[in-house]
Design a protein that fits this description.
The protein has 184 residues and is mainly β. The chain has one domain (7-179). The chain is 12% helix and 41% strand. The chain has three helices and ten strands. It has helices at residues 37-46, 104-112, 155-158, and strands at 7-14, 26-34, 57-63, 66-72, 81-87, 116-120, 126-135, 142-150, 165-167, 172-182. The protein has a five-stranded mixed β-sheet. Strand 4 (66-72) and strand 5 form a beta hairpin. The termini are far apart. The model has no long low-confidence stretch (mean pLDDT 91).
C-alpha cells in the first residue's frame, strides 16, 4: 500500500554489549531518518530503538554510475549529509579497517550482520534494546568510490578520516523483541 521510504540510519558498533544484557553483535543507533512522514511517525510510535527523524528534505538519486544522497535537516533533529559516490571496479578499503579484518568479505559480513540494536532514551542511563535482522545477499554488495562527503553534523568524526562505501541493492530490515534497559 505504501512504497518503501528512503532511509538513512547512522550507527556505532558496540563492543561492551554485556552491559545491555545481550550476547550478539550490536549497533548503537545515533540517528535514523526517513523521507516519508507516515513511516517516520509509525517508527516513533512502534519502536523505541528506531527513533526516526523527518528531515526537511531527503533526496537519494541514482544517475547511471553516480549516486547522490542529500539530507537537509531544516528545523528537525535530523542530521545533514551530502554524498556523491560512483560504482567502483574494485574494493579500496582503508588500512585503518585492518584492525577489524583485513579480509574484505569478513569485514563486510561484520559490518552488515548485526543482531541487536541499542538506542539511548530521553532519561539518563536508559536504553532501548531490540533484536534486528538484515536480510541481504552478500554477493550482491558492490564497492563504491566516495567523490564527495560533507556533513556539519558529522564534521568532527569524518574530518580527515579515510572512509569507504558499498552498495547493498536489496535489504530487508526487521526490528523486534524490544526491551528497555537501565544502566547505572
Amino acid at each position: 500500500m505504501f512504497a518503501s521510504p528512503v532511509q538513512s540510519n547512522w550507527r556505532f558498533y558496540v563492543e561492551n554489549i554485556h552491559d545491555f544484557g545481550i550476547q550478539q553483535p550490536a549497533i548503537f543507533f545515533i540517528k535514523n531518518c526517513m523521507n516519508e512522514r507516515t513511516y517516520a511517525l509509525g517508527s516513533r510510535i512502534a519502536s523505541s530503538v528506531l527513533q526516526t527523524h523527518l528531515p526537511h528534505s531527503f533526496k537519494h538519486i541514482t544517475e547511471e554510475q553516480r549516486i547522490i544522497t542529500e539530507i537537509q535537516s531544516g528545523c528537525s533533529n535530523a542530521p545533514d549529509l551530502h554524498t556523491e559516490v560512483t560504482l567502483a571496479d574494485s574494493w579500496n578499503i582503508p588500512s585503518a579497517f585492518n584492525v577489524i579484518s583485513s579480509d574484505k568479505t569478513k569485514l563486510i559480513e561484520l559490518i552488515c550482520n548485526q543482531d541487536a540494536a541499542i538506542a539511548a532514551q530521553p532519561e539518563a542511563g536508559v536504553y532501548a534494546v531490540g533484536h534486528i535482522e538484515l536480510k541481504f545477499k552478500l554477493n550482491e554488495i558492490k564497492p563504491l568510490k566516495i567523490t564527495k562527503l560533507e556533513s556539519n553534523w558529522l564534521k568532527e568524526i569524518i574530518q580527515g578520516a579515510e572512509c569507504f562505501a558499498f552498495l547493498m541493492p536489496n535489504v530487508m530490515f526487521i526490528s523486534h523483541k524490544e526491551k528497555i534497559v537501565k544502566i547505572k
